[in-house]
Design brief:
InterPro entries: DUF5053. This protein has helices spanning 11-14, 24-32, 36-43, 57-80. By secondary structure, it is mostly helical.
Length: 81
């Protein structure tokens, strides 16, 4: 019998489809009140000292909300065009 294991997909891999179209520094500032280096470290799953890091569960939910908000703003802009 085959056993299925859940393989963790990196944050960077999850964001690859939109990575070049989004200004992460603006998202860090607008939705988190943080710097661009902070969000790049989170996306690259490193901490400020080069160790293992990433988003906390609360930050993941906040990031998800930020992406939903951005998507809705883009949708409204497109509809008004």
């Amino acid at each position: 019998m085959k056993t299925m294991t859940a393989e963790k997909v990196s944050t960077k891999e999850q964001l690859k489809d939109i990575a070049l179209d989004v200004t992460w520094a603006k998202i860090a500032q607008k939705y988190f009140g943080k710097s661009s280096s902070w969000i790049y470290n989170k996306i690259n799953e490193v901490d400020g000292n080069g160790g293992k890091g990433g988003f906390t569960e609360d930050e993941k939910q906040q990031f998800k909300g930020a992406l939903y908000d951005l998507a809705e703003r883009i949708r409204r802009t497109a509809d008004d065009f």
